Amino acid sequence: MATETRERIVEAADLLFYQHGFEATSFADIARTVGISRGNFYHHFKTKDDILDGVINRRLANTEQMLDRWEIAGSDPAERIRSFIHILIVNGEKIRKFGCPVGTLSSELAKLNHAAKSDAAALFTLFRSWLRRQFERLGFGDKSDELAMHILGRSQGVATLANAFDDDRFLRHEVELMCDWLDVQIADLTNSNHPTGE
Amino acid sequence: MATETRERIVEAADLLFYQHGFEATSFADIARTVGISRGNFYHHFKTKDDILDGVINRRLANTEQMLDRWEIAGSDPAERIRSFIHILIVNGEKIRKFGCPVGTLSSELAKLNHAAKSDAAALFTLFRSWLRRQFERLGFGDKSDELAMHILGRSQGVATLANAFDDDRFLRHEVELMCDWLDVQIADLTNSNHPTGE
DNA sequence: GACGAACTAGGACGATTGTCCTATTTTCAG
DNA sequence: CTGAAAATAGGACAATCGTCCTAGTTCGTC
């Protein structure tokens, strides 16, 4: 079936782009991985940028799906944020090898001056909006976006260094710190809501 | 003179690697920028990896020099750490366009499985050790390395997101937060040294 | 069962890649 | 001034890049 082959191509490209980068992954590499000819390849994707579009859309869909699942599973917004923070540990091995899929793609496309850079940034926006929504539900109001960006930035930095030093201990320690930070934020919020004590 | 041309090559390669990445920068690109022939080029650098080595060594030397200058200029270790944090603002424009030179190179080489990955990580180590030394002087003892890594990670994350969103406000806000964090760390330290109060 | 569309294979294309070679020019010590 | 070494230019090299084309094959629909 057509869609099946197309799906296999995007899936293979997704993995290769993550592991070796967009620029370093060739048309031939993907075709070889999928086990199809380059000619067949071109029937599904006219240009390399088309594949990139496909990969980004796939990641957008997958991410959205994951965030939706969290939205249902965890009843507590704080617990959902902790779910986000813990991706660093869940995907720890991959991150130590290849970095964060979102951050590294965004950085590469920025350097390549690639038109799809904003599409890659949309992946970040997905997380950002989701996190902001959780903070809003916790009652942080206008500060929610700032807090979302803060968490997002922290996890990006942790991914970068865990990758550079291949350091699992650091990664886990920073995850703890981020959870501690979250607890403090929530505690400060409840204090400021009841300034005179109970 | 020989060394002069060599220096110009490394300088141009340094900039191009930063702005467009190592993989995306070709031999011809560098030669064109410097204004020399590819043949002349090969006389100075046998392979592309040799240029990468040259660029990394140049960055190592420049970084070391910058850190040494800070070590002399600022008498207070805390002030020196603030100098480090403020690179984000000083180089803000470049960072928003191309990300952090250290982090993006490290990420790219990790994906390329390049032998020089550890050399690029040495750039991180330079900052890490310097920061650890400052924390040690402030009296943080065994915690110094953890704090150094924390600061390093935070700035990496800020650079990644400032680049992805081209957001100067976020960058400046996070720099403030990092400085606040530093103040809290120092305050906590002095409190724990005088647990019963003055 | 026939026929058009979708799918697949494999090769050709010009351009560019990193690398290497051979001339020519420049530099500088004896 | 001379001759060896260093520096430079420019092209050749095979390999690979993204792209495109032309054949076959398979499929679904009348």
From TrEMBL, chains A, B:
Residue ranges that the Swiss-Prot or TrEMBL entry lists as coiled coil: none
GO molecular function, one term: DNA binding
Residue ranges of every copy of the HTH tetR-type domain listed in the record: 3-63
Annotated Pfam families: TetR_C_13_2, TetR_N
Presence of the UniProt keyword DNA-binding in the record: yes
Domain of life: Bacteria
SUPFAM superfamilies: Homeodomain-like, Tetracyclin repressor-like, C-terminal domain
Keywords tagged on the record: DNA-binding, Transcription, Transcription regulation
DNA-binding region: 26-45
Keyword DNA-binding: yes
Protein name per UniProt: Transcriptional regulator
